[in-house]
Amino acid sequence: MDGSSLLFDPDEEDDEFFYQGAKQQYRDISKRTNKKLTMEFDRVYDTDHTNENLFQECTAPLVDAVLDGYNCSVFVYGATGAGKTFTMLGCENCPGLTFLTMRDLFEKIQSQNATRKFDVGVSYLEVYNEQVMNLLTKTGPLKLREDANGVVVSGLVLKPIYSAEELLHMLTIGNANRTQHPTDANAESSRSHAIFQVHIRITELSTGTKRSVKLSMIDLAGSERAASTKGLGMRFKEGASINKSLLALGNCINKLADGLKHIPYRDSNLTRILKDSLGGNCRTLMIANVSMSSLTYEDTYNTLKYASRAKKIRSVLRQNVLKSNLPKEFYVKKVTELMAEQERLLQHNKALESKLAQLERSASSSSSFGGFDMQELKPWYSRIDAVYTSVIKLQQCVIGLRSKIQTLSYRQTLKKDFEQLRKAVTQDQRLIQESPLFNA
Ligand SMILES: Nc1ncnc2c1ncn2[C@@H]1O[C@H](COP(=O)(O)OP(=O)(O)OP(=O)(O)O)[C@@H](O)[C@H]1O
């Protein structure tokens, strides 16, 4: 309909039927009434839009967020044949979101090389029939386990990457290993969920601060009704497994949207792996692919319903900062600098205050406010406010740094005590060994 709303199942334009010049009102009782549902989304793209449009508006901002230290995930969801893989991978003339996003990521990394160090590693997994496989090495099934950092894939080794070309090469290898089988709905149907992840460790060269972030691109297998794909045997098992994991995903989305505490991530390996992309510390973009075909009417309706529910999920984001190994001297220097800055601002503030007092004095003695009108005074007031705000911020910073120094001093004292204790013990041991009693 427009850039952010969509009309599902609109009224069809019926040919009007006239009898003897009069329009006839009729209703086909065998026909289901149209749902005519208007749905609101952050953005709706129609058939004129390209993957490049999607990249510019949706995933380019995520690359900036990743480089600012936030985990981000993009996943495509929809009925089989609706265009999920096309959105993610595209074709030669119309590259998909993964290619465009990775190229942008590496360009931005290159432009920041002077001030930051980047260590990049990738993994490419597929969940096929509930089994987790490594698409880069064609190995598996891999086990999932949970630790303090969340769900971990046992035995998964990240492949270090040094250029955008290498990264795209890995993507090609993984795609070639992905499980695909023809269905009636799609000749090249992806029968597994594919999860491409780029893990980046960012080190700020000036401060040594480290951040570890993750960008995940997830191409889900298509939802399908068994009847619509006429799957038999293995294909039926595949379809059932896909639907089971998508059902588990739908349940998690519903519960997260309702703000519930217990989310059944453990119901499938797909939801276990996506745990931090759905409800964790992650900015998540969900792309719902829908087709205009009436063959996928129910699937399209379900996809849109899930997308509407997913829009309600709110997560709390934290920047991923790892501890920095900075010496105590760094903090001492920083405090000294901040205190000098604070002193300068205080002096500046005093000067502004006395200027203001002078103006107020002349204002009280004359109606013209000492030659200034109120409009001229306003900027001075806001400058004073701004200086006060800066002073307060600096004071908070100084307090934080002082407490860090105290902790470091305390640690140093403990270290010294420990050292003395160790020496004393060594000496005692030596005395014992040298004693005649010990040698007897
Ligand atoms: N925007 C598009 N422009 C041109 N071709 C498209 C577009 N979207 C999809 N297609 C074509 O439609 C077919 C099905 O698309 P695709 O494989 O991406 O569907 P899918 O949702 O990933 O399906 P499945 O879940 O079965 O894997 C492919 O041949 C693809 O090239």
Automatic annotation (TrEMBL):
Protein name: Kinesin motor domain-containing protein
Annotated Gene Ontology cellular component terms: microtubule
Residues spanning the signal sequence: none
Coiled coil feature spans: 335-362
PANTHER family found in the cross-reference section: CENTROMERE PROTEIN E (PTHR47968), KINESIN MOTOR DOMAIN-CONTAINING PROTEIN (PTHR47968:SF65)
Keywords: ATP-binding, Coiled coil, Cytoplasm, Cytoskeleton, Microtubule, Motor protein, Nucleotide-binding
Ligand binding (ATP): 78-85
Alphabetical list of SUPFAM superfamilies matching this protein: P-loop containing nucleoside triphosphate hydrolases
GO molecular function list: ATP binding; microtubule binding; microtubule motor activity
